[in-house]
């Protein structure tokens, strides 16, 4: 279901609780909402009002990917970049890393399975942005 975006700092600044397999409907709402917003590429659950550590992003082909409980384990190649956010009015400059290693859970056959993957470039930047959202960190 497509949800309305939250722009309230009081909601967005609350660290998210760990997600479980029972939160699959939230993940689907994220994917649906992300697909409905022109030019959107990533979204965290707290941006639709749910304080669970779930994020969704679109790859270069427009396919949606969902991560439950993402954590950045390693980061290399820091740089200052300008980012925009669906929940903020103005772009901001933040430090992001060119390469990251992420641990996260993925829903497979109704159960969360632990994963670890390396990401680079634009995808790495999106994931860092969403992990910040899960921590309640506002850009």
Describe this structure in words.
It is a single chain. By secondary structure, the chain is α+β, with helices and mostly antiparallel strands. It contains three helices and five strands. It has helices spanning 9-12, 24-36, 121-134, and strands spanning 42-44, 54-58, 64-83, 92-108, 111-120. It has a five-stranded antiparallel sheet. The longest helix is centred in the C-terminal third of the chain and has 14 residues, at 121-134. The radius of gyration is 14 Å and the shape is globular. The model has no long low-confidence stretch (mean pLDDT 95).
Describe what is shown at a glance.
This protein has 139 residues and is of the alpha+beta class.
Largest sheet: 5 strands, antiparallel
Kindly provide the radius of gyration, computed on alpha-carbon positions and rounded to a whole number of angstroms: 14 Å
Spans of at least 5 consecutive residues whose pLDDT stays below 50 are none
Number of strands: 5
Termini, distance in Å? 27 Å
> What does the overall shape look like?
globular
Q: In what order do the strands lie side by side in the largest sheet?
A: 1-2-3-4-5
Query: How many separate helices?
Result: 3
Q: Oligomeric state of the chains? A: single chain
Element string (H = helix, E = strand): HHEEEEEH
